Amino acid sequence: MLKRRSWLGLAFALSMAPEMAPSSAMAQDSVMVFAAASLKNALDEIAATWAKDTGKPAPRISYAASSALARQMEQGAPADLFLSADLDWMDYAVAKNLIKADTRFNLLGNKIVLIAPKDSRTTTLAITGGDLAKALAGGKLSMANVDAVPAGKYGKAALEKLGAWAAVKDSIAQAENVRAALLLVARGEAPLGIVYSTDAAAEPGVKVVATFPEDSHPPIIYPAAITKDSKNAAAKAFLDFLRSAKARTVFEKQGFTVLAKSASST
Hints:
- Helix content is about 40%, strand content about 20%.
- It has helices spanning about 5-15, 25-30, 40-55, 65-75, 85-95, 130-135, 150-160, 165-170, 180-185, 195-200, 235-240, 245-255; strands at about 30-35, 60-65, 80-85, 105-110, 110-115, 140-145, 170-175, 190-195, 205-210, 220-225, 255-260.
- α3 (about 40-55) links the parallel β1 (about 30-35) and β2 (about 60-65).
- α3 runs antiparallel to α12.
């Protein structure tokens, strides 16, 4: 059974985990990146490589749900780059005049999967309402917020398309972002969860028990862009580096599909 207190504490911990506060001098020079939570493993490695290669301060990266990041920017939070986990929240940023539209491009693709704790007896599961409800056995299906967070929206769309939503909609544990949903399953607080395949690959405490058909939900696309108010000259350099061969290797190692052409060929 899901423990509400530990779930809320976990969500709070993730929301507060982006990075340690840098010195004021470093803060002025560092590129500030607002990025979808599912990008953490890959982007941390890429940022470290970029800093080593260029000698510039490592980018500061704030990870959260794309919805939360877009709204933070709307409220005046400073950022140089925005990496969303779906097109909708990048479109929102465009509509609110928060980004430089001519710098926008589609960077990555992903998949969503159904996961269980690593020691679960469930090994494979058909994605139907009856099977999901039976496997939950009164427990919760962990998902990112199904109304706002991209991973949750993709998951709900897939469940609806596959005719399973009605059977499980009252058993959803909604988390602040996809990494919070992932950890609920890894900690055994939820018997099943829906996350990106890259999240499942990054967490040894879970296993994939089903993969959602790509035609069961809108295409999973991560767009990237420079923010409207960015004055950091290094922002474009780091954005270009995200399309480099080195970055591609890291993204693909984490399980992402790279959609963007290299910066040198655009």
